[in-house]
Amino acid sequence: MESQKKTGQSVNKTSTSEKDEEEECCANTSCEKNEKQKPSSPKQGDFSDPVYKEIAVENGTINRMNKDELRAKCAELKLDTRGVKDVLRKRLKSYYKKQKLMHSAAANGSTDTYFDYICVVDFEATCEENNPPDYLHEIIEFPMVLIDMHTLEIVDSFQQYVKPVVNPQLSEFCVKLTGITQKMVDEAETFHQVLKRAVSWLQEKELGTKYKYTFLTDGSWDMGKFLHTQCKLSCIRYPQFARKWINIRKSYGNFYKVPRTQTKLICMLENLGMQYDGRPHCGLDDSRNIARIAIYMLKDGCQLRVNECLHSGEPRSVPISAPIEGAPAPQTPQKETERII
């Protein structure tokens, strides 16, 4: 919900018990407030190996190619020929790097695929055309799209509408923006009920038990603002499994070396040679398009890693040096009144 991610203020202060839990969650990853991250090395190890000289030579050749030459080389190698010049250049470099390192990686038994699944989330929330400073966004659509990291395909999806409580009447602007009608939310379940359904769906996929997984969002707002705010309003402890995620805007910007202005959803799609499929600001359609971007990045050689977490009620960056780990098995968070003091 890109237009909503530009405005808004923080909600109630984080409770002491939740703050302690968040600090413990991020302690192991040494979250940094600075969002700027250095790109990861192509491979940890001895860079004096001759293979890296070969890669450097290939990179130099690619850097001297114009767009037509890049596209022709991609076609020759049966790679996707869509995208702007920077994307094509990165695609070729990643292809050659992967080819050069493949035998070494196979010999060491290593793999670039840590996660079995990535779950894309893009909430839709209540909004006004000009949100007042104290406006509280309530989630009105809870969508998830599941990417199989081994096949690089979208394999399943989840969607539920949510009944808002603080602002039960949707604004005309919100209805027009999201396509979600008053009737749809009036007939929907409350957030706590929908969250239970979402957790059940994740559990049915055996995520966090049999399979390693993590979440991916388009920016920091979905987890750091919308979900955090909604849990406060619903008197629910923020779910442990959603405390860390991949912010695809950061991943895209770092991988393709582009400024933040080129990391909006439509811009990312266009730079990769794709068009938006569906209705903009429909949470499920947004999630599917974000998943398409993630899949293309993976095919271009990007190693998607968790790069943000929730710390003291605010999204923080996770340094590239942090250990790779999947999200814990999903559990339905308790209502505040159900906690054992």
Automatic annotation (TrEMBL):
Kindly list the GO CC terms recorded for this protein: cytoplasm; nucleolus
Q: What is its main location?
A: cytoplasm
Give an example GO biological process.
regulatory ncRNA-mediated gene silencing
Region (Disordered) residue ranges read: 1-50, 317-341
Q: Keyword Repeat on this protein?
A: no
Domain named SAP is located at 62-96
> Could you say which enzyme class this protein belongs to?
hydrolase
Q: Where in the cell is it found?
A: Cytoplasm; Nucleus, Nucleolus
Keyword Cytoplasm: yes or no? yes
In Pfam terms, one family for this protein is: RNase_T
* Organism superkingdom: Eukaryota
Q: What is its EC number?
A: 3.1.13.1
Bias-annotated ranges (Polar residues)? 1-12
- Give the matching SMART domains: EXOIII, SAP
Q: InterPro entries of this UniProt entry?
A: 3-5_Exoribonuclease (IPR051274), ERI-1_3'hExo-like (IPR047201), Ribonucl_H (IPR013520), RNaseH-like_sf (IPR012337), RNaseH_sf (IPR036397), SAP_dom (IPR003034), SAP_dom_sf (IPR036361)
UniProt cofactor(s): Mg(2+)
Q: Provide the GO MF annotations for this entry.
A: exoribonuclease II activity; metal ion binding; RNA binding
Q: Which reaction does it catalyse?
A: Exonucleolytic cleavage in the 3'- to 5'-direction to yield nucleoside 5'-phosphates
UniProt keyword annotations, A-Z = Cytoplasm, Exonuclease, Hydrolase, Magnesium, Metal-binding, Nuclease, Nucleus, Phosphoprotein, RNA-binding, RNA-mediated gene silencing, rRNA processing
Record PANTHER family: 3'-5' EXONUCLEASE ERI1-RELATED, 3'-5' EXORIBONUCLEASE 1-RELATED
Q: Can you name this protein?
A: 3'-5' exoribonuclease 1
Annotated organism of origin: Carassius auratus (Goldfish)
Q: Which gene encodes it?
A: LOC113038648
